[in-house]
Write a structure and sequence with these properties.
This protein is of the alpha+beta class and 238 residues long. Helices cover 25% and strands 11% of the residues. 45% of the residues are buried. The N terminus is likely disordered.
């Protein structure tokens, strides 16, 4: 069992490729296990621009490109990349991409173990900063390449319990936090890191909530890494 949450900090690393046609991957490093290499998360909150939430007008999932694009050119979709990174004992099908089974041990949002089985999964890949939230806080002005990069950036992605993820919706720190209180500091630090990386703004209520959570863990550091903020040219509109 790997420790997730608690004193562990979130440091989402660049997705790695798994060479060869293996049946199982054991002990793959998850995003909660290494200490963030950025500065203190609480201090970083002050660098975020504060503005009101823009209208949701024009938002559609397709505005961020097709789901789970291969932006890192490893010939695997982003969803399977994240499943391989986050699941314990991930079992692959033919080839090195498709994840057939595994377990969140435990799920960071609930603290419970959750089993993944392809086709009847209880595991979702969550956008830590929701796409709709991003749209209302700056992303509607981005070009296609930046939106595709954002939607597929490992820094902004986490395998979690499906039911809990769906209860989150497009909530920000002011409106939703993981039920697992031990994971709230790493979660909020990840939201700060993503918004800082992509230049997204926060509402006044959101900033206050971020500071309130992170003031209880002033040593929490920002996670770092992920993909460039611009997807390769093949993902740009003509």
């Amino acid at each position: 069992m790997r420790l997730r949450g608690g004193t562990a900090a979130v440091a989402v690393m660049t997705v790695f490729a798994v060479a060869g046609c293996t049946e199982d991957i054991t002990g793959s490093p998850g995003p909660q296990e290494t200490t963030g290499s950025g500065g203190p998360a609480l201090a970083a909150v002050e660098s975020l621009t504060v503005k009101g939430r823009a209208p949701r007008t024009g938002y559609d999932r397709d505005r961020f490109g097709s789901a789970w694009a291969d932006t890192d050119s490893n010939d695997c979709g982003t969803r399977d990349d994240i499943l391989r990174r986050d699941l314990d004992n991930a079992r692959l099908g033919d080839g090195r991409c498709k994840v057939l089974a595994g377990k969140l041990d435990p799920d960071p949002y609930t603290g419970r173990d959750v089993t993944f089985a392809r086709g009847r999964s209880k595991v979702d890949i969550d956008h830590i900063v929701a796409l709709s939230d991003a749209w209302q806080k700056g992303a509607q002005k981005w070009d296609d390449g930046k939106r595709v990069a954002f939607a597929n950036d490992p820094l902004n992605l986490l395998a979690v319990d499906a039911g809990t993820n769906r209860s989150k919706g497009d909530g920000d720190t002011a409106t939703w936090l993981p039920p697992n209180k031990a994971y709230r500091c790493p979660y909020v630090a990840a939201q700060v890191a993503v918004k800082k990386k992509y230049g997204l703004w926060v509402t006044a209520a959101e900033k206050a909530a971020m500071k309130r959570v992170l003031s209880g863990c002033p040593g929490q550091r920002l996670p770092s890494g992920g993909n460039p903020t611009k997807a390769p040219p093949r993902f740009h509109a003509d």
